[in-house]
Amino acid sequence: MRAHLQMAGLALAALAVAWGGPSGAAEVTKSAEVQRTGMLTVANTLDYAPFEYLDADGKQTGIIIELAGEVAKLVGAKLDVARTPFPSMIPGLAAGRFKVAWETFSATPERLKQVDFVMFLKAGLAVSTSPDKKASFSGDTPLCGKRIGVSAGSASDFLVDKLSTECTGKGQAAIEKSVFNSSTDIVQAVLSDRVDARMDDATASSYFEVTSKGQLVVLPTLYEVAPLGMAIAKDDKETADMMVGALSELFKNGTYKAVLDKYGMGAYAIKEPYFVGSMEALRAD
């Protein structure tokens, strides 16, 4: 994942300078809050590699952290990452505690009742397990009867419930779901045989397959391939416009692609960022 170490170092060094400084790139219209405070505040778990995590020195890093730093640069603001548990993000937006929850959300009708989205990535859901258990996941219903770990409130959380119902409807054993608050906890549960496998975004699953050095393998089936995005408070047009505008600039100037490629996630890029206020606005790619 970190094959391009020189590029990584340069990118991080650039971000250290960029955050908080004005940019010479195309001007992006700031929201009233950013104009008033000089801060771009985003809610984030800081515990979902490769999107966001703390490195060995305790420094915030990852795809989302780097992209957020570049957005802050474009709007001439300092980046403030408000560490927030994933299940608390949409309620926090709805309550007005923050304006942006930058994670890899999938849009659902229920979520869209409370928030809007700005899409910036695509991925499906994948299952990963230990090499010795891979052969046991076979047939048309490979998850039936298995112990599956998921992140609380994630798309995987809801999908496992749906798949479990399908299992019992076919006369097979239900899926035994275990819910965790962090992706690293689920990985440890797989490695310690407390669950048989974990379901997560294919992007994160691919990352953990590499970094686990052979302790995890990703199964070939992808579920529910769809765009992913950050969540914005419902009907907050100026914040949504600011984020779409800033990301559009990063797409155009090559920063977006460079950050994704750095983490081995170039295959999950989309053509352009876009706003989603209803399910009808979702695009196929």
Low-confidence residue ranges: 1-25
- Overall structural class, as computed from helix and strand content, comes to alpha/beta
Q: How far is the N terminus from the C terminus?
A: 24 Å
Task: Give the ordered list of helices and strands.
Answer: HHEEEHEHEHEEHEHEHEHHE
Tally of helical runs: 10
Q: Mind describing the biggest β-sheet?
A: 9 strands, mixed
Helix fraction by DSSP (H/I, runs of at least 4): 25-40%
Number of DSSP strand runs:
11
Summed over residues and divided by their number, the pLDDT gives a mean of 89
Radius of gyration: 19 Å
Content of β-strand: 25-35%
* Shape type: globular
Descriptive keywords:
alpha/beta, two-stranded antiparallel ribbon, globular
Structure described in brief:
With 285 residues, the chain is an alpha/beta fold.
Task: Describe this protein's structure.
- The protein is α/β, with parallel strands linked by helices and 285 residues long.
- 35% of the residues lie in helices and 25% in strands.
- The strands form 2 sheets. Strands 1, 4, 5, 6, 7, 8, 9, 10 and 11 form a 9-stranded mixed beta sheet that branches.
- A hairpin with a 5-residue loop joins β2 and β3 (60-61).
- α1 (5-18) crosses α3 (63-74), α3 packs across α9 (237-252) and α3 runs antiparallel to α10.
- The chain is globular, with a radius of gyration of 19 Å.
- Pfam families: SBP_bac_3.
- Keywords: Signal.
- Residues 1-25 form the signal peptide.
- Residues 39-267 form the Solute-binding protein family 3/N-terminal domain.
